[in-house]
Write a structure and sequence with these properties.
Helix content is about 65%, strand content about 0%. The protein starts with 16 loop residues before the first helix and ends with a helix.
C-alpha cells in the first residue's frame, strides 16, 4: 500500500541547504523519496525515544527483588497509609 494513501497531516520544516542536500543524498542511497526517507527516519527515532520512556529495564537482581516483593509485599508503613488516606480524600469515586 503506498505511503501517500495514508497521509492526512502536513509538517513544514526549514533547514539549511547543506542539510537538505545531505538528506536528499541519503534518500537517494536508500532509494526513497526525500519525504519517505525523512518520515521513516523520524518515526524510527520517535519509536526509540518512546521506548526509552515506556520500557523499564532492570537487572536480574532487581527483577528478583521486585518479584519477591510482588509475591510477598511488606505491610503498609505510616507513609503508605497516609498516601492512601490522602488519595481517598482527594479522589472520590
Amino acid at each position: 500500500m503506498p505511503r501517500t494513501a495514508r497521509r492526512q497531516e502536513r509538517i513544514s520544516l526549514r533547514i539549511s541547504p547543506q542539510s537538505k542536500r545531505k538528506l536528499e543524498r541519503a534518500a537517494a542511497y536508500a532509494e526513497k523519496t526525500l519525504t519517505d526517507f525523512v518520515i521513516d527516519v523520524a518515526l524510527q527515532r520517535a519509536d526509540a525515544v518512546v521506548r526509552e520512556q515506556a520500557v523499564i529495564t532492570v537487572t536480574n537482581d532487581e527483577w528478583e527483588r521486585f518479584h519477591k516483593l510482588l509475591l510477598n509485599p511488606p505491610k503498609p508503613n505510616k507513609r503508605l497509609r497516609k498516601a492512601f488516606a490522602d488519595h481517598a480524600r482527594v479522589v472520590r469515586s
